[in-house]
């Protein structure tokens, strides 16, 4: 028996490999008559800045100050991400009145990308996840970990990872 895909989760980090993955997600959704959900996760900005700066930013501001900073920055980041996702999705809109991108549910969340994607898989009743993969290589993935690697290892449903063709990835 061949698999049937009725609900596809497309997870994007807005990269070029994610753009390529979107085309695969749309093609599969068209072929299977599947509904699509588009998910982009915005990292928690205070955590991100603390990690990049090498010290705990939260300790330099009052709780109310950093919550305000984080909320404002997160709201802006989510708005920008929503615009970028819509722009990417518009590139894949087909003439089909039931185009999966046109009817896709768009979710912009905040937090650790792999954890949020895995949580969405658990709650969304998906049959397939489609996402881009940067392909730094096994050694780098082992050292740094990668969102795609973690999702592939822990997802209860199949995950299609899409890489850029070699000529685009290197140049």
TrEMBL record:
Any one Pfam family match given in the protein's UniProt record, by short name: Usp
Positions of the UspA domain: 4-163
Keyword Transcription: no
The UniProt record lists the keyword ATP-binding: yes
Keywords of this entry: ATP-binding, Nucleotide-binding
GO terms assigned for molecular function: ATP binding
SUPFAM superfamilies associated with the record: Adenine nucleotide alpha hydrolases-like (SSF52402)
PANTHER family (UniProt xref): STRESS RESPONSE PROTEIN NHAX, UNIVERSAL STRESS PROTEIN RV2623
Family: Belongs to the universal stress protein A family.
UniProt-recorded name of the protein: Nucleotide-binding universal stress protein, UspA family
Organism encoding this protein: Desulfomicrobium norvegicum (strain DSM 1741 / NCIMB 8310)
